[in-house]
Amino acid sequence: MRVVSFFAAGILVSWVLSVLGEEMMGSSPCNFPAIYNFGDSNSDTGGNSAAFYPAGPPSGETFFHQPAGRGSDGRLIIDFIAKHLRLPYLSAYLDSIGTSYRHGANFATGGARIRRFNTSFFVTGESPFSLDIQIVQFDQFKSRTSNLYKHAKKHSSRRNLPRPEDFSKALYTFDIGQNDIAASLQTMSNEQLKAVIPGIVDQLATAVEHLYQNGARTFWIHNTGPIGCLPVTQHHYHRPMPGILDQHGCVIAQNDMAKEFNRKLKSAVIKLREQLPDAAFTYVDVFAAKYKLIGNAKKQGFVDARNICCGYHEDDSHVYCGNKAKINGSEVYAGSCEDPSLYISWDGVHYTEAANHWIANHIVNGSFSDPPVPITHACHKGQSV
Protein backbone atom coordinates (compact mmCIF):
# COMPACT_ATOMS: atom_id res chain seq x y z
CA MET A 1 0.00 0.00 0.00
CA ARG A 2 2.85 2.34 0.87
CA VAL A 3 4.54 1.56 -2.46
CA VAL A 4 1.36 2.47 -4.31
CA SER A 5 1.09 5.73 -2.34
CA PHE A 6 4.68 6.70 -3.13
CA PHE A 7 4.13 5.80 -6.79
CA ALA A 8 0.94 7.89 -6.92
CA ALA A 9 2.69 10.78 -5.17
CA GLY A 10 5.51 10.58 -7.70
CA ILE A 11 3.06 10.79 -10.59
CA LEU A 12 1.34 13.75 -8.95
CA VAL A 13 4.63 15.60 -8.40
CA SER A 14 5.70 14.94 -12.00
CA TRP A 15 2.34 16.19 -13.27
CA VAL A 16 2.55 19.37 -11.16
CA LEU A 17 6.11 20.09 -12.34
CA SER A 18 5.05 19.43 -15.92
CA VAL A 19 2.15 21.87 -15.68
CA LEU A 20 4.31 24.51 -13.99
CA GLY A 21 7.02 23.95 -16.57
CA GLU A 22 4.63 24.44 -19.46
CA GLU A 23 3.20 27.55 -17.81
CA MET A 24 6.69 28.93 -17.20
CA MET A 25 8.09 28.11 -20.62
CA GLY A 26 5.13 29.03 -22.74
CA SER A 27 3.53 26.81 -25.32
CA SER A 28 6.37 26.75 -27.83
CA PRO A 29 10.14 27.28 -28.18
CA CYS A 30 11.39 30.74 -29.01
CA ASN A 31 13.18 29.78 -32.25
CA PHE A 32 15.78 32.50 -31.90
CA PRO A 33 17.01 33.54 -35.35
CA ALA A 34 20.27 34.98 -34.01
CA ILE A 35 22.54 35.43 -30.98
CA TYR A 36 24.41 38.61 -30.08
CA ASN A 37 27.07 37.98 -27.47
CA PHE A 38 29.06 40.38 -25.29
CA GLY A 39 31.90 39.24 -23.07
CA ASP A 40 35.53 38.37 -22.43
CA SER A 41 37.76 35.39 -23.28
CA ASN A 42 35.25 32.95 -21.81
CA SER A 43 33.14 33.60 -24.93
CA ASP A 44 35.59 35.16 -27.41
CA THR A 45 35.33 33.23 -30.69
CA GLY A 46 38.02 35.17 -32.53
CA GLY A 47 37.83 38.86 -31.64
CA ASN A 48 41.29 39.19 -30.14
CA SER A 49 42.85 37.04 -32.85
CA ALA A 50 41.38 39.32 -35.51
CA ALA A 51 42.27 42.56 -33.74
CA PHE A 52 45.79 41.83 -32.54
CA TYR A 53 47.56 38.56 -33.19
CA PRO A 54 46.11 35.12 -33.91
CA ALA A 55 45.98 32.51 -31.18
CA GLY A 56 48.55 29.86 -32.00
CA PRO A 57 48.78 26.12 -31.47
CA PRO A 58 47.94 24.01 -29.60
CA SER A 59 44.67 25.95 -29.13
CA GLY A 60 41.80 24.55 -31.15
CA GLU A 61 43.38 21.12 -31.52
CA THR A 62 40.46 19.03 -30.25
CA PHE A 63 37.53 20.19 -32.38
CA PHE A 64 38.76 22.61 -35.03
CA HIS A 65 42.14 20.83 -35.43
CA GLN A 66 43.76 24.24 -35.77
CA PRO A 67 43.74 27.54 -33.84
CA ALA A 68 40.25 29.06 -34.04
CA GLY A 69 40.54 32.24 -32.00
CA ARG A 70 39.37 30.57 -28.79
CA GLY A 71 41.19 30.21 -25.47
CA SER A 72 40.63 26.47 -25.40
CA ASP A 73 41.44 23.22 -27.13
CA GLY A 74 38.00 23.41 -28.77
CA ARG A 75 34.58 24.93 -28.34
CA LEU A 76 33.37 27.35 -25.67
CA ILE A 77 30.08 27.52 -23.78
CA ILE A 78 28.75 30.04 -26.31
CA ASP A 79 29.50 27.56 -29.11
CA PHE A 80 27.47 24.87 -27.38
CA ILE A 81 24.66 27.35 -26.77
CA ALA A 82 24.57 28.14 -30.49
CA LYS A 83 24.59 24.44 -31.33
CA HIS A 84 21.78 23.77 -28.84
CA LEU A 85 19.70 26.48 -30.52
CA ARG A 86 20.55 24.99 -33.93
CA LEU A 87 22.42 28.08 -35.01
CA PRO A 88 25.92 28.37 -36.55
CA TYR A 89 28.90 29.15 -34.34
CA LEU A 90 29.18 32.92 -33.91
CA SER A 91 31.59 34.90 -36.03
CA ALA A 92 33.57 37.59 -34.22
CA TYR A 93 32.48 41.11 -35.12
CA LEU A 94 36.13 42.07 -35.66
CA ASP A 95 36.80 39.19 -38.06
CA SER A 96 36.17 40.22 -41.66
CA ILE A 97 37.43 37.08 -43.38
CA GLY A 98 34.94 34.46 -44.52
CA THR A 99 32.31 35.42 -41.98
CA SER A 100 28.53 35.34 -42.01
CA TYR A 101 26.43 37.43 -39.67
CA ARG A 102 23.03 36.16 -40.77
CA HIS A 103 22.52 34.45 -37.40
CA GLY A 104 24.27 36.90 -35.09
CA ALA A 105 27.67 38.23 -34.13
CA ASN A 106 30.09 38.00 -31.23
CA PHE A 107 31.48 41.21 -29.71
CA ALA A 108 33.41 39.47 -26.92
CA THR A 109 37.18 39.83 -26.74
CA GLY A 110 39.71 38.22 -24.43
CA GLY A 111 40.74 40.46 -21.54
CA ALA A 112 37.62 42.64 -21.79
CA ARG A 113 36.12 44.26 -18.73
CA ILE A 114 32.82 45.91 -18.00
CA ARG A 115 34.64 49.00 -16.81
CA ARG A 116 36.94 50.62 -19.36
CA PHE A 117 40.66 50.14 -18.85
CA ASN A 118 43.10 52.71 -20.23
CA THR A 119 46.34 50.74 -20.41
CA SER A 120 47.68 49.24 -23.63
CA PHE A 121 46.67 45.67 -24.50
CA PHE A 122 50.29 44.93 -25.36
CA VAL A 123 51.43 45.97 -21.89
CA THR A 124 48.79 44.28 -19.71
CA GLY A 125 46.78 41.93 -21.93
CA GLU A 126 43.63 43.89 -21.04
CA SER A 127 41.34 44.37 -24.01
CA PRO A 128 40.56 47.92 -25.15
CA PHE A 129 37.14 46.57 -26.17
CA SER A 130 35.38 47.08 -22.83
CA LEU A 131 31.64 46.52 -22.64
CA ASP A 132 30.75 50.10 -23.56
CA ILE A 133 32.88 49.78 -26.71
CA GLN A 134 31.26 46.44 -27.55
CA ILE A 135 27.86 48.14 -27.30
CA VAL A 136 29.00 50.94 -29.62
CA GLN A 137 30.24 48.30 -32.05
CA PHE A 138 26.85 46.59 -31.91
CA ASP A 139 25.09 49.89 -32.64
CA GLN A 140 27.27 50.41 -35.68
CA PHE A 141 26.82 46.81 -36.76
CA LYS A 142 23.05 47.04 -36.56
CA SER A 143 22.88 50.36 -38.37
CA ARG A 144 25.26 49.46 -41.18
CA THR A 145 23.99 45.95 -41.83
CA SER A 146 20.37 47.12 -41.83
CA ASN A 147 21.24 49.81 -44.34
CA LEU A 148 23.16 47.36 -46.54
CA TYR A 149 20.30 44.87 -46.37
CA LYS A 150 17.77 47.54 -47.35
CA HIS A 151 19.74 48.67 -50.39
CA ALA A 152 21.00 45.29 -51.58
CA LYS A 153 19.68 44.70 -55.10
CA LYS A 154 20.34 40.97 -55.22
CA HIS A 155 19.27 38.25 -52.80
CA SER A 156 22.82 36.88 -52.84
CA SER A 157 24.10 40.20 -51.50
CA ARG A 158 21.95 39.73 -48.39
CA ARG A 159 22.79 36.13 -47.50
CA ASN A 160 25.53 36.98 -44.99
CA LEU A 161 23.65 39.92 -43.47
CA PRO A 162 21.24 39.77 -40.53
CA ARG A 163 17.60 40.41 -41.36
CA PRO A 164 16.63 43.76 -39.75
CA GLU A 165 13.48 42.22 -38.22
CA ASP A 166 15.58 39.57 -36.45
CA PHE A 167 17.27 42.00 -34.07
CA SER A 168 14.17 42.19 -31.85
CA LYS A 169 13.74 38.40 -31.94
CA ALA A 170 17.37 37.55 -31.17
CA LEU A 171 18.90 36.26 -27.94
CA TYR A 172 21.32 38.71 -26.27
CA THR A 173 23.91 36.93 -24.12
CA PHE A 174 26.38 38.37 -21.60
CA ASP A 175 29.42 36.67 -20.05
CA ILE A 176 31.62 39.40 -18.62
CA GLY A 177 32.89 40.63 -15.26
CA GLN A 178 35.59 38.11 -14.40
CA ASN A 179 38.41 40.43 -15.46
CA ASP A 180 36.97 43.33 -13.47
CA ILE A 181 37.14 41.21 -10.33
CA ALA A 182 40.45 39.48 -11.06
CA ALA A 183 42.31 42.67 -11.93
CA SER A 184 40.88 44.58 -8.97
CA LEU A 185 41.97 41.81 -6.59
CA GLN A 186 45.56 42.63 -7.53
CA THR A 187 45.30 46.35 -6.78
CA MET A 188 42.57 46.75 -4.14
CA SER A 189 41.69 45.49 -0.72
CA ASN A 190 38.53 43.42 -0.39
CA GLU A 191 36.71 46.37 1.15
CA GLN A 192 37.77 48.67 -1.68
CA LEU A 193 36.60 46.13 -4.24
CA LYS A 194 33.25 45.71 -2.50
CA ALA A 195 32.81 49.46 -2.74
CA VAL A 196 33.32 49.58 -6.53
CA ILE A 197 31.35 46.45 -7.47
CA PRO A 198 27.97 48.26 -7.50
CA GLY A 199 29.31 50.76 -10.03
CA ILE A 200 30.65 47.97 -12.24
CA VAL A 201 27.30 46.17 -12.16
CA ASP A 202 25.47 49.43 -12.89
CA GLN A 203 27.52 49.77 -16.08
CA LEU A 204 26.41 46.33 -17.23
CA ALA A 205 22.79 47.23 -16.44
CA THR A 206 23.18 50.45 -18.45
CA ALA A 207 24.41 48.41 -21.43
CA VAL A 208 21.38 46.12 -21.16
CA GLU A 209 19.02 49.10 -20.96
CA HIS A 210 20.62 50.60 -24.06
CA LEU A 211 20.07 47.41 -26.03
CA TYR A 212 16.48 47.29 -24.80
CA GLN A 213 15.85 50.85 -25.96
CA ASN A 214 17.12 49.74 -29.37
CA GLY A 215 14.76 46.79 -29.63
CA ALA A 216 16.39 43.89 -27.77
CA ARG A 217 13.90 41.86 -25.75
CA THR A 218 15.52 38.60 -24.57
CA PHE A 219 18.58 38.60 -22.31
CA TRP A 220 20.57 35.59 -21.03
CA ILE A 221 23.06 36.89 -18.45
CA HIS A 222 25.84 34.74 -16.96
CA ASN A 223 27.29 35.63 -13.59
CA THR A 224 31.03 35.30 -13.07
CA GLY A 225 32.72 32.00 -12.27
CA PRO A 226 34.73 30.86 -9.23
CA ILE A 227 37.89 32.89 -9.82
CA GLY A 228 39.52 31.39 -6.75
CA CYS A 229 39.32 27.93 -8.32
CA LEU A 230 41.41 28.78 -11.39
CA PRO A 231 44.50 26.55 -11.25
CA VAL A 232 46.80 29.42 -12.21
CA THR A 233 45.63 31.13 -9.01
CA GLN A 234 45.89 27.99 -6.90
CA HIS A 235 49.52 27.47 -7.93
CA HIS A 236 50.43 30.58 -5.94
CA TYR A 237 49.07 28.91 -2.80
CA HIS A 238 50.93 25.60 -2.76
CA ARG A 239 51.86 26.15 0.90
CA PRO A 240 48.83 28.07 2.18
CA MET A 241 48.06 29.11 5.72
CA PRO A 242 45.01 27.42 7.29
CA GLY A 243 41.71 28.99 6.22
CA ILE A 244 43.00 30.32 2.88
CA LEU A 245 41.65 27.49 0.72
CA ASP A 246 38.33 25.66 0.80
CA GLN A 247 37.80 21.89 0.58
CA HIS A 248 38.39 21.93 -3.19
CA GLY A 249 41.60 23.95 -3.00
CA CYS A 250 39.93 27.20 -4.11
CA VAL A 251 40.98 30.57 -2.69
CA ILE A 252 38.10 31.52 -0.39
CA ALA A 253 38.63 35.30 -0.41
CA GLN A 254 38.68 35.47 -4.21
CA ASN A 255 35.54 33.39 -4.54
CA ASP A 256 33.87 35.58 -1.93
CA MET A 257 34.48 38.61 -4.14
CA ALA A 258 33.06 36.78 -7.14
CA LYS A 259 29.98 35.90 -5.05
CA GLU A 260 29.61 39.54 -4.00
CA PHE A 261 29.65 40.59 -7.66
CA ASN A 262 27.09 37.90 -8.45
CA ARG A 263 24.76 39.00 -5.66
CA LYS A 264 24.80 42.55 -6.96
CA LEU A 265 24.34 41.33 -10.54
CA LYS A 266 21.32 39.23 -9.62
CA SER A 267 19.76 42.20 -7.81
CA ALA A 268 20.37 44.32 -10.91
CA VAL A 269 18.66 41.74 -13.13
CA ILE A 270 15.64 41.66 -10.80
CA LYS A 271 15.49 45.46 -10.95
CA LEU A 272 15.72 45.40 -14.75
CA ARG A 273 12.74 43.03 -14.85
CA GLU A 274 10.73 45.60 -12.95
CA GLN A 275 11.88 48.54 -15.06
CA LEU A 276 11.61 46.81 -18.44
CA PRO A 277 8.54 44.55 -18.20
CA ASP A 278 8.41 43.93 -21.96
CA ALA A 279 11.76 42.09 -21.82
CA ALA A 280 12.62 38.57 -20.64
CA PHE A 281 15.67 38.27 -18.39
CA THR A 282 17.39 35.03 -17.40
CA TYR A 283 20.11 35.16 -14.74
CA VAL A 284 22.40 32.14 -15.09
CA ASP A 285 24.43 30.94 -12.10
CA VAL A 286 27.55 29.85 -13.98
CA PHE A 287 29.49 30.10 -10.70
CA ALA A 288 27.41 27.27 -9.22
CA ALA A 289 27.66 25.14 -12.36
CA LYS A 290 31.44 25.48 -12.59
CA TYR A 291 31.92 24.95 -8.86
CA LYS A 292 29.80 21.81 -9.01
CA LEU A 293 32.01 20.44 -11.77
CA ILE A 294 35.21 21.36 -9.94
CA GLY A 295 33.97 19.79 -6.71
CA ASN A 296 32.97 16.57 -8.46
CA ALA A 297 35.75 16.37 -11.04
CA LYS A 298 36.70 12.73 -10.57
CA LYS A 299 33.09 11.56 -10.28
CA GLN A 300 32.43 13.23 -13.63
CA GLY A 301 35.36 11.47 -15.30
CA PHE A 302 37.97 14.23 -15.06
CA VAL A 303 41.35 14.36 -13.36
CA ASP A 304 41.85 16.63 -10.35
CA ALA A 305 40.47 20.07 -11.24
CA ARG A 306 43.77 21.71 -10.24
CA ASN A 307 45.64 19.95 -13.05
CA ILE A 308 46.36 22.05 -16.15
CA CYS A 309 46.33 20.47 -19.60
CA CYS A 310 48.40 23.03 -21.53
CA GLY A 311 51.37 24.78 -19.98
CA TYR A 312 54.36 24.16 -17.77
CA HIS A 313 53.85 24.87 -14.07
CA GLU A 314 56.46 23.24 -11.88
CA ASP A 315 57.55 24.65 -8.52
CA ASP A 316 57.75 28.42 -9.13
CA SER A 317 58.36 28.19 -12.88
CA HIS A 318 55.48 29.07 -15.21
CA VAL A 319 55.45 28.81 -18.99
CA TYR A 320 52.01 29.47 -20.42
CA CYS A 321 50.27 27.39 -23.04
CA GLY A 322 51.96 27.38 -26.43
CA ASN A 323 55.03 29.33 -25.29
CA LYS A 324 58.70 28.46 -24.94
CA ALA A 325 61.14 29.41 -22.20
CA LYS A 326 64.46 28.40 -20.73
CA ILE A 327 64.31 26.79 -17.30
CA ASN A 328 67.53 25.75 -15.58
CA GLY A 329 69.34 26.11 -18.89
CA SER A 330 66.95 23.91 -20.86
CA GLU A 331 64.34 25.06 -23.34
CA VAL A 332 60.81 24.09 -22.34
CA TYR A 333 57.84 24.11 -24.71
CA ALA A 334 54.52 24.40 -22.90
CA GLY A 335 52.46 22.01 -24.99
CA SER A 336 49.19 20.28 -24.27
CA CYS A 337 48.42 17.11 -22.39
CA GLU A 338 47.84 13.78 -24.12
CA ASP A 339 44.07 13.75 -23.61
CA PRO A 340 42.43 17.16 -23.00
CA SER A 341 39.02 15.53 -22.55
CA LEU A 342 40.15 14.36 -19.10
CA TYR A 343 40.95 17.88 -17.91
CA ILE A 344 38.76 20.72 -16.70
CA SER A 345 41.40 23.43 -17.09
CA TRP A 346 42.92 24.02 -20.49
CA ASP A 347 45.61 26.59 -19.65
CA GLY A 348 45.11 27.44 -15.99
CA VAL A 349 42.60 30.21 -16.74
CA HIS A 350 40.27 28.85 -19.41
CA TYR A 351 38.32 25.61 -19.59
CA THR A 352 38.73 22.68 -21.97
CA GLU A 353 36.11 21.83 -24.56
CA ALA A 354 35.06 18.85 -22.44
CA ALA A 355 34.49 21.06 -19.40
CA ASN A 356 32.72 23.73 -21.46
CA HIS A 357 30.46 21.03 -22.89
CA TRP A 358 29.62 19.75 -19.39
CA ILE A 359 28.85 23.25 -18.12
CA ALA A 360 26.76 24.14 -21.18
CA ASN A 361 24.72 20.96 -20.82
CA HIS A 362 23.95 21.88 -17.21
CA ILE A 363 22.87 25.48 -17.87
CA VAL A 364 20.88 25.31 -21.13
CA ASN A 365 18.11 23.28 -19.46
CA GLY A 366 17.47 25.97 -16.83
CA SER A 367 18.89 24.02 -13.88
CA PHE A 368 21.05 26.97 -12.82
CA SER A 369 18.79 29.77 -14.03
CA ASP A 370 16.46 32.30 -12.46
CA PRO A 371 13.74 31.85 -13.61
CA PRO A 372 14.38 28.10 -14.15
CA VAL A 373 13.53 28.01 -17.86
CA PRO A 374 15.59 26.30 -20.58
CA ILE A 375 17.34 28.57 -23.01
CA THR A 376 15.01 27.44 -25.81
CA HIS A 377 12.15 29.16 -23.91
CA ALA A 378 14.06 32.15 -22.54
CA CYS A 379 11.93 34.63 -24.49
CA HIS A 380 8.94 33.80 -22.29
CA LYS A 381 8.83 35.96 -19.19
CA GLY A 382 8.85 33.72 -16.10
CA GLN A 383 8.54 34.44 -12.41
CA SER A 384 11.80 34.88 -10.49
CA VAL A 385 12.40 32.31 -7.77
Structure description:
The protein is α/β, with parallel strands linked by helices and 385 residues long. Helix content is 38%, strand content 11%. The protein contains 11 helices and 10 strands. The protein has helices at 2-25, 47-51, 77-84, 121-124, 131-151, 178-187, 190-213, 231-234, 252-275, 286-295, 353-363, and strands at 35-39, 104-106, 171-175, 218-222, 280-284, 311-314, 317-320, 324-327, 330-333, 369-370. Strands 2-1-3-4-5-10 form a 6-stranded mixed sheet, covered by helices on one side. Strand 8 (324-327) and strand 9 (330-333) form a beta hairpin. Helix 7 (190-213) packs parallel to helix 9 (252-275) and helix 10 packs across helix 11. The longest helix has 24 residues, at 2-25. It is globular. It starts with a helix and ends in a 15-residue tail after the last strand. Mean pLDDT is 90; it is low at 1-22.
One letter per element, helices H and strands E, the order comes to HEHHEHHEHHEHHEHEEEEHE
The spatial strand order of the largest sheet comes to 2-1-3-4-5-10
Major beta-sheet overview: 6 strands, mixed
Which CATH class applies here?
A: Alpha Beta
Which band does the percent of strand residues land in? Answer: 5-15%
Number of separate strands: 10
Oligomer classification: single chain
Named CATH topology: Rossmann fold
Mean pLDDT: 90
- Tally of helical segments: 11
Radius of gyration: 22 Å
CATH architectural label: 3-Layer(aba) Sandwich
Structural class: alpha/beta
Could you estimate the helical fraction of the residues in percent?
A: 25-40%
Poorly predicted spans? 1-22
* Bulk shape: globular
* First and last CA, distance: 35 Å
How many structurally independent domains?
1
